[in-house]
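User: Okay, second chain of the day. Same drill as before: sequence in, structure tokens out.
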Amino acid sequence: MVELIRSQMAALRVFVGLADQLRVPSADGLAEQVRAASCDHGIKRWRLYLTPEQVASVAYGLRLHRMTGSAAQANRFAREYGVVHSPVRDLGEGPPAARGGAGIGGRG
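Assistant: Same drill. Structure tokens below.
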């Protein structure tokens, strides 16, 4: 399970909305998970149940968002889940490269 704040979820929605226009699209099933996400209003977070490939894809999408001017969402995701998109390791084929993953199971 991944919990995203509102600004992260907004950036992720843009990413999956543009997936068919990107050279490296979002991971299979990510768009459906974004549409099915539920918001826990008590903690003000969106909950998504993602595979490791989808988590890496979220890191990639937030990295793209970072390139448009805001690093906060990608930095927070990296801090909370230990997953960072690494453009140096991404050869442009297949799913985006990501480092980390120890925190995928939950926050903390």
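Residues 102-108 have pLDDT under 50 and may be disordered.

User: Thanks, on to the next one.
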